[in-house]
Amino acid sequence: MWKRSLLALGLALILISAAAWGFRDRLLLAGLDRAYRLGIAAQGLPQLPDGLHVGLCGAGSPMPDPGRVGPCVAVLAGSHLFVVDSGPGSTRTLALMGLPPARAEAVFISHFHSDHIGDLGELMLQHWAGGAARRPLDIYGPVGVDRVVQGFEGAYALDRDYRLRHHAPNVVPPSGFGGAPHPFAIDPAGSPTLVLQAPNLKVWAFAVDHRPAEPAVGYRFEYKDRVLVISGDTASTPALQRAARGADVLVHEALSPILVAMQRQAALAAGRGNLAAILHDIPSYHSTPEAAADTAQRAGVRYLLLDHIVPPTPAILDSAFLGDARARFAGPLRVGQDGDFLSMPAGSHEIRRSNRLRRWPF
After folding, report:
1. Which whole-number Å values give the CA distances from 105 to 98, 136, 266, in the listed order?
2. Are strands 137-142 and 179-184 parallel, antiparallel or unpaired?
């Protein structure tokens, strides 16, 4: 008798558990349905105060980093969304930050290393198919950007044909595929070049020193009374300091030579001579955190945000990565993480920091 009672109790517990799990699943699915509805309905740009805003849609480098994808900076000037560089994985991160790739109005490329252009095809595709664009995405860059755009268009040509056969023309308008390149010349020793002008907005390009990767540029965004400067990849150079003069925010690449030297020794110990040679070479055309801090201090920058972090470093080791950079710069300094977001409302000196990266897209 007691065995039958225990069996009945066990079966009852199983049925109750199954019912509870079923109820749980129904609740979760109802919540997911609501999340989908809210997320898809909110595919416009975020509601932000009028001003200049900058976010890291990729704070990493070519080195694998569990917390950072390839280089990418999102810039919101009023209601206009721009993207500077398009490193691998950055298009998805842009979307996870609530900045729809379809809403990007233009891309600015700093130079043509693969880690800065690797996601350009995806960004062009999402701009087209994700937003039913009727004209290609404007892509600004130094001389050679047309070759890059044409290369990605060629690589995506078969994909384009599949989508045109699968979807109606009003869903993927044939005229909106790809990119419209806007190459500009830059004088390595000259003044910045104005590459885009709109009401209340100017975007300047200036030469930086990333030899042998030439041409290479940084960008200065001026929106109303707020200023943002993005270094691109560069060794320390007076041109960057001049361009950053009086900027509210400087987004500057950074490489720790001490940590890279540790990686090189590990590569040598493992018999990986090729990797050791690369790790020996790369510090010559990048900036240390201390050099970035010196540039920001001399230029009178108000906030320094480091990106293109080399080598990958967890946040707990920020102090080791920075060396004595904090002692060299009087303002706020941050080692960038994907999703970092700074807001500069017009008509003020305020700089607000947040992180917009959501691990779930809705």
Report:
1. 16, 10, 44
2. parallel
Backbone phi and psi for residue 333, each to the nearest 5 degrees, phi listed first: -135, 130
Backbone angles phi, psi at 155, to 5 degrees: -65, -30
Entry pTM: 0.89
List helix spans (H) across the chain.
2-41, 90-96, 114-117, 120-129, 145-155, 157-166, 238-243, 257-269, 273-281, 289-299, 318-322, 325-328
Indicate if 318 belongs to the active site.
no
Half-sphere exposure of 352 (CA within 13 A, CB side): 12
Nearest-5° angle of CA 177, CA 181, CA 186? 165
**What CA–CA distance (Å, rounded) separates 183 from 180?**
10
pLDDT digits (tens, 9 = 90+) for 236-293: 889 999 999 999 999 999 999 999 898 999 999 999 999 989 988 888 899 999 999 9
DSSP 8-state code for residue 251: E
Classify residue 171 by its DSSP letter.
T
| Catalytic position from the list 115, 233, 307, 338 | 115
User: In b/e form, how buried is each residue of 186-205, taking b as 16+ CB within 10 angstroms?
Assistant: beeeeebbebbeeeebbbbb
Q: How many other C-beta atoms are found inside a 10 Å radius of the C-beta of residue 168? A: 8
